[in-house]
Fold this sequence. Notes:
- With 260 residues, the chain is of the alpha/beta class.
- It is 23% helix and 25% strand.
- The protein has one domain (7-259): L-arginine/glycine Amidinotransferase, Chain A (5-stranded Propeller).
- It has 6 helices and 15 strands.
- The structure holds glycine.
- Residues 21-22, 24, 65, 68, 87, 90, 165, 247-249 line the site of glycine.
Amino acid sequence: MPDISIMHALCRAVSPAITDCELSFIDRESIDVALAQAQHRDYIAALGALGVRVTELPAEPVLPDSVFVEDSVLLFDELAVLTRPGAISRRAEVDAIAPVVQSVRSRVERITQPGTVDGGDVLCIGQHVFVGLSQRSNQAAIDQLTAVLKPFGYAVTAVPIRNCLHLKSAVTALSDDTVLINPEWVAAGYFDAYRQIRVAESEAHAANVVRIGAAILMPSCFPETRALVQAAGFAVSTVDVSELQKAEGAVTCCCVLFTG
Ligand code: GLY
C-alpha cells in the first residue's frame, strides 16, 4: 500500500504581547508586532506551499511566547506528550493547546513536576529521540519521556547543549540520515551515526530548519548555509522570520508537525 499519510501542522497566531517574550541567549531588540504577524502568515503560507495542512489557532493575548507552539507538545504517530516548559511564563501555553491535541491523538501523556522540557529540545529522527539537556529541559523530564516512549519502540538519548536555547537551535534533521549541525553548541559525536552538514561559520543560528518530506524550510537570512544544504541535494524554501528571531524563535518552533 502506498503511504497516503498527510502532513499536518498546528500553528498559533503571534500574540500582541510577543514584545514581553522570554530571552535567554540574545539581547532584547524592539519587535515590530505587525511585521511579526505578517511574517508568521508568510511562514504558514510557506508550509502550505509544501503541502502541509495547517490548523491555525488564535493568538493568546497574554502569553507572549505562545506562537512557539512546538515547545508545548510533542506529537508522535502513536501518542502526544504535553510538555512542562522550563520557563514559568510559558507553562500556561500547555493547557491552551491541550484541547486541540486531544482532538488529534487519543492517547495523551503529560510531563510532570519536577520534569521540565521544551519541545525545542526534542529532535526525533525516525525512532530515535534526542533530548537537549538545557536551561529549559532536565533529566527528570528525559526519564519520564523515556518511560512513556519505550513501549512504542523509541530510544531516547540525552544531549547536553551549550550557549544556545534549545537542542534544535544546534541541530536538526535534513533527512533520516543527515543532520544540519552547529558543533559549537552541541558535540557532533552524539550524531556520529548521521551524515553531518555544518552550518556556515558566520551563521551560528542556521541549524534550525523544518523538514517537510524531502523539502527543507529555513530562514532567508542564512544564504551560505542554504547553499551548503542545496549542494548536498536538498530542495530549500526560505521565509523571512526576522521579527520572530528577535523573540529567540526559529522556524521549527512555530509549528507542531504531525501525520494524520
Ligand atoms: N522566546 C522564546 C523562549 O525563550 O522560549
